[in-house]
Amino acid sequence: MTVLRIANLGKTYGTATALAGVSLDVAMGSRTVIVGPSGSGKTTLLRLIAGFEAPDTGRIELNGELLADAEAGVPAYRRNIGLVMQEGALFPHLSVLDNICFGIRSEADANKRALALMDMTELDRGMAQRQPHQLSGGQQQRVALARALARQPRLMLLDEPFSALDAGLREQMRDATANILAQAGVATVLVTHDRDEAMGFADQLVILRDGRLVQAGSPKSLYRRPVDATTAAFLGAAIILPADFSVRTAECALGALLVPETDAAEGAGKVLIRPEQLNIVAAPEGEWHVVSALDRGNKSAVTIERVYRGDRVVISFDDVSVHGLEVGQAVQVEIAGTVRPLKG
Ligand code: ADP
Ligand code: MG
Question: For a 10 Å CB count at each end of the chain, is N or C smaller?
């Protein structure tokens, strides 16, 4: 079932288009991740959903109820949507407990619920009377999460909530947050520009660029079938080569490769090959030559080259399971599975 429905959403600031024609559904209890470079409109999208901005075009619905369109909007405080930002934005003069209780103070069991939320977010109850400056960055973000959950939001929005944390803690917080949100059963929209965070967190991954939705789908489907070269490279290591397509064949420097029936194409374009599809084998008559080979034991970093239709083509791999290659050696490249045509 759909919790959040966004249709044809648009927002401009003066002459700058922050969002244009964005449509998106978020399913109950699911995790949607919005990724895109800086300035692509990620924060604007969350601010529109939360109600801090009004759209110029389109509409936003929560559980079938209109939250906002170009004419009218439910005020932010009545949307019952939780929001956690990059820096927790905790009230500095309030204790942990009072931060979490903020907004539910009037309720009889506020303290009890706040303590239960501390347990859920793995905050030691002994910290209840501390102030935010007496907590680590990770603990502060847990308090921010607990505070947002205290009001039992219908939807949770997280805007780069881990980006101020260092790498190890970020990963730990990402997994902890995914667990906490699953326990709470609340649908979540997370914004990030970090690939691993996006791939690790998402049921639905949404790629935003220049205020437009480029592609949406499961991480697996986007990895396998990215719409264009930029998306392909963002989602993982990619080898992208010019190719001539004729129905189910891509003719390129790596040979005549098989294209899936559903992706049949004609004419000149680009083809995507993932490094895990490749196998490099020593072959005296091979067209490729090893330029460099760094054997790291488990995996190797290898660069190979060849001349193809008068041009020098170079391919580098970071993590291939080939060993014992020597610089200058002739090799052949075998491709497993099918390859995809790309736009752009
Ligand atoms: P992101 O979060 O992906 O980095 P933003 O949503 O913050 O992107 O911004 C998208 C675009 O809208 C940018 O070009 C930004 O400069 C512009 N923008 C965002 N907020 C405002 C604002 N309040 N006033 C003017 N321009 C804005
Ligand atoms: Mg932003």
Answer: N
Ligand 1 pocket, residues with Cβ under 6 angstroms: 13, 16, 18, 36, 38-44
Q: Which CATH class is domain 237-342?
A: mainly beta
With beta carbons less than 8 A apart as the criterion, state whether 288 and 306 touch.
yes
Closest-lying ligand 1 atom to the alpha carbon of residue 47: 6
Gap from CA of 159 to ligand 2 centroid (Å): 7
Inter-residue contact 19 to 191 (CB < 8 Å): no
What the block records as the tokens of 205 is: 């991954």
Please name which ligand lies nearest the alpha carbon of 206.
Answer: 1
Domain boundaries, the chain: 2-224, 237-342
The per-residue pLDDT for range 225-252, each reduced to its tens digit, is: 999 999 999 999 999 999 999 989 999 9
Q: At a CB cut-off of 8 Å and minimum separation 6, what does 194 contact?
A: 35, 163, 170
pTM recorded for the entire structure: 0.88
Residue type, position 244, single letter: D
Given phi > 0 = left and psi -120 to 50 = alpha, else beta, which region is 75? beta
Rounded to whole angstroms, how far apart are CA atoms 162 and 173? Answer: 7
